[in-house]
Amino acid sequence: MYSENKRNFDVFSLVIGILLIFLGGYSLYRPDTTLAFISIMIGIIAIIKGIYELWFRRGISFWLGEKSGWLLVMGILDIILGLIFIFKIAVGASFIAVIFAVWFIFDAITQLATANFFKRLDKGYYWVIVILSILSLIMGIMLLFNPMLSALTIVWIISIYLITIGILKIIQAF
């Protein structure tokens, strides 16, 4: 018997795809707004984490009779950092840019340190890892000394991601 596998048009995926492409384009057009949004979101997450740590400290004290000074300090620090990220957006965006650059540097160093494991397996792959890691290290150092470039790189990555997922959602709709 012949069975027809006909897909229905998915309006929801089309709308989400168009929205994601719009957001990706907007974030490319307005990187300052995108960085402000990221800073505010990180601030909100830090405040929630700080409140959770204080609540968790209270629970440990109540149930186990233990008092954790570290949880108290970390909870208060997270709340303060969260407030800084929300109300001093330029500071938050700069901090995000520096962390992004440091992440590149540490990742490159880690890749270089583990490259020797691949030397015995495949010398071609080993050299690819070494070359890409050195390039990543150079890029990380450049980003560290140019926070504006680092911040723009973050925005570009987010924008390209949003646009790519948007295109995939539109394709999925049909």
Automatic annotation (TrEMBL):
Record keywords: Membrane, Transmembrane, Transmembrane helix
Can you tell me where the transmembrane regions are? 12-29, 35-56, 68-87, 93-113, 125-145, 151-171
Q: Which GO terms describe its cellular component?
A: plasma membrane
InterPro entries with a match to the protein in the record: Acid_resist_chaperone_HdeD, DUF308_memb
Q: Which residues form the signal peptide?
A: none
**What superkingdom does the record give?**
Bacteria
Q: Name one Pfam family in it.
A: DUF308
What is the name of the protein in this document? Acid-resistance membrane protein
